[in-house]
Specification:
By secondary structure, the protein is α/β, with parallel strands linked by helices. The chain contains six helices and seven strands.
Length: 187
Amino acid sequence: MTAFIIIIQLIYLLLAIILVIYLINIIFSFKKLVPYVPTPYKVIKQMIKLAEIKPADKIIDLGSGSGRIILKVACHYPNSVTGIDNSSVLILTTKFRFWLNKVFKKLKTKNYKIIKGNFLEFELSDYSLVFCFLTNTAMEKLKENFEQLPAGSRIISYHFHFASDKFSEKMIPLSKRGKIFIYQKLG
């Protein structure tokens, strides 16, 4: 019985350490270009609906954080899905969440990637659907990358926008939750 109690205490200690590391990561993210702020699940559902995902879409989430958007897509669509973030803690969190969903057979796709890297330097020309919840500054810095997307590609951005004459823009207001911008690359 004593061994069981010690094991339980060690598990609690491990969980507490993981939680502290996760919280420290969140706090320090506010010094970066894009802080870690999770997209609300209601907004994710709306973003995915507005994306009108097609079978041929190759999907990426820039600044994927803990993988909320790409996991939701991967659980409902068979498309190729990629998440990119520069935080090792968030990448590990995303991989763990995908592993759990794979174990419980919730994933509709086997074609997913979680990449640790700088989304500002990532080549986007192979993707047809981009999700993001960044900042206006990050969106402006990504403008040249976005312009490399194939014609007809879509960008679904929660709350933040950019200006480009190479995209049509539509803004969808959300009640009490900001807005979603939908961009489509012109021919």
